[in-house]
């Protein structure tokens, strides 16, 4: 089998009209690992039907048939039979907050994926029982009230009844936080505490705080309050970050781009992740952006940083990626679709111009948070002005989020050589968007297909851990189905992607955003050997099941970083959990469907007499049958059983 292949050797690419087996043998590149008997979604359009890969020194050295790849096996080559499973390139989150999330992961009770308020409160009660003073119980984002069967949040009365003495802080998206009475005492909020700028402390008729904090319109009050709580010790932050990376590996993530974040100061808050990188303990590739922390002194931040670190500095596991997502505070247009769109101040253009010009002159890639088209229009006015004076000339720059970006502005982004990083925030906030702007406006929010048709680089991500879950499969499900986690259909076929296209945005597409296009994102000779093996065949399972996928085998640079189910004997050694009261010890991370319900779903699909999946449950009738139905509430009752699955 002879064809033109590209192989990386010593960091440079060359092409040769030669067989992969012959080339591998000639270069004395006996594989370290061979995976075979698989269905490969290579994302390489020139090689779509391979069934096996060979990996040497962390890169793919062959992607071909079982017979051809097995010819390369040496005496020390490890081989793994994938037993016909689907294999995809490792997923790459183009916009997330791993560094901040890792520092806190072992302190947080995650409601990501929890199906009901009743279950969430049971988890809360169990965690309160083991959390010692003065620690808090924290539920810090990653969920929406619409994912719950009851279609509501827990009440403050319910939370206070469970936790009269232990502080409880619950963050819901960017819009609100719930604090019990013990938490109000811990942070010192009382009758005399004034509302901060951009936030509201809800009060009762006597003027006392109720425990509800409302973002109006930005989330500063929520994050500033959270920052008052205890932190993990430096040693536990290291363990916590390793556990968070393992959780991402479990979901098939092998790379991320960290978009910085509020209260994430460089270099101090990067010590933990830097130490892990130095000690070769990263299991996720990280490209990190720097996020200004000083309102009014943003240019000074970037002038300092451009002297001490260069874009691309680092290696394939940990490297600097440029500026943002906050470039200047006056440009922040945080999305809270419960509130009116924020109007950016008159000083924004001058401040953004000064920072952008400095970054372009320094050849620093940059990214900027832009939810609304009105904001993006003003950003582009600035960028076009800078480009006329100091050409961007191929510099990678990014608009993040872009929920309401217009076709005209998509074309302007393309003309300047920019990309758009999209996240699944509408899967969590679609209901709020529709309530404010209407279903018609939501149909192209964001207009992903229009971006792709215009030739703009598009990468998929999560914006985790606070405003949405870190689970990439929710995002893939959202791109394919056009539905929120609450089941609301947002998009018609004109703005939905097929399954391979959705995976491509989460792999090959995202690589552009760290200037690593061509180095990762496909199962292709010469690229990083990053692989995820989902527990079920992404290309064949019912659409409704996609959001519940996880990886049974995840490989980063040829090293197995996660293995479970049939591949569990290959798993790396378990990590310790500290502190011992950590919610992760009891509950783990993302809450997938219960195993017994999943089994019922499989049986139901096999025995189901329907020709197509129903509009409520797909073929997952077993989940409906086994659900904890809220029979005391007719609306919620029919919300769970609103189909003829068991008629």
UniProtKB/TrEMBL annotation:
InterPro entries: Amidohydro_3, Metal-dep_hydrolase_composite, Metal_Hydrolase, YtcJ-like. CDD domains: YtcJ_like. The lineage of its organism: Bacteria, Pseudomonadati, Pseudomonadota, Alphaproteobacteria, Caulobacterales. PANTHER family: IMIDAZOLONEPROPIONASE, PERIPLASMIC PROTEIN. Residues 78-562 form the Amidohydrolase domain. One of its GO terms (molecular function) is hydrolase activity, acting on carbon-nitrogen (but not peptide) bonds. It comes from the Bacteria. This is Amidohydrolase 3 domain-containing protein. It comes from Asticcacaulis endophyticus.
